[in-house]
Amino acid sequence: MPAGALPLTQLHLPARWEVWLDFAPVKALLPLPVLLLVLPAVAWFFRDTWKELDKEAASHRAAMVEQGVTDRRALHCLLIVAVSLTIKDYFGGRPFYEEILRPFLASRQQAGWHFLHLEQFDELFGYGWWVFSRVFGYVLLPFPLWKLLHPRDSLLDFGLRTKGFLSHAWIYGLCTAVVVPLMLVVANQPDFGSYYPFYKQCSRSGLDLLLWESIYIIQFFALELFFRGFVVGALRPSFGSSAIIAMAVPYCMIHYGKPYLEAMGAIIAGIVLGSLAARTRSIYAGFLVHVTIALGMDLLALSHRHELPVHFWPALR
Question: Which of 12, 43, 60, 263 is the most exposed place for a label (fewest CB within 10 A)?
Fold first, then answer.
């Protein structure tokens, strides 16, 4: 650089396809043909699983009619889903943390809990509450309620059995291979780059990134256990394969507020992961797919912003 010359920052010029993808009318309508192409392929791939679910449901409903018993599984499940999601949404965010929990942590720090370093990790503590509220809403509330209402049901049948997991591991690999290229396309969207990771101090240190991803993974396990374990497991005897679609609706809706293409993609993801859980009778493969995508999206967003941490330990004050 010549003496006295000002340093110049080279601007990134988006490719033509990136410009078109960010054009609102194109962005709004683009997922529709994708859904029309992908969903029939998903239906074909899981056709045997869906047929088996429908046969099981037909037998269950016939038995209910023969016994003269009213099947209340769907009523109980959907009411629990509505209550759990509403409590989680209204009390699981930053406002509750700011009003109730942060003053408590501040008082504890003043009383001698200096290891909290609240000034530096306040945002992470807030997300700690966010994760706990989801564990409560997704697991600690619905599962005991269901056991109380349906004591004969084994909670292990709600996606927690490990038998046969390795024999279905190839499906995890296939789903990952399909989703990763789509994730790389979505990663170029401006709203994606500014949205992830949720915890904005991830770039400060490797410890910040590690702590965030650790609690993020816990949240995903609770989420999979709720949607693919509890909802599908509770509804499949009554709804058959339609239990997967019934689950995919609220699953898509919890993505509102996230990048648009991700929210639309949640329709496909919900159906695929629900079908995978029904086929394997386990949530573990879907959990691994979800975690792989989530961690990848966080790391891609940090990389695109050139904000991957360079030091492991944060400078504590």
Answer: 12
- Residues, the chain, total? 317
Number of other residues whose CB lies within 10 A of the CB of residue 285: 24
- Contact yes or no for 131/219 (Cβ under 8 A): yes
Query: Do residues 48 and 275 touch, judged by C-beta distance below 8 A?
Result: no
Q: What residues contact residue 262 under an 8 Å CB cut-off, 6+ apart?
A: 186, 192, 255
Q: How far apart (Å, rounded) are the C-alpha atoms in residues 115 and 157?
A: 42
- pLDDT per residue over 17-52, tens digit each? 666 767 778 778 888 998 999 999 999 999 999 999
* Measured CA angle at 275 (ends 284, 33), to 5 deg: 120
Structure tokens at 30: 């683009």
Q: Does the bond joining 197 to the residue before it have cis omega, within 30 degrees of 0?
A: yes
First to last CA, the chain: 39
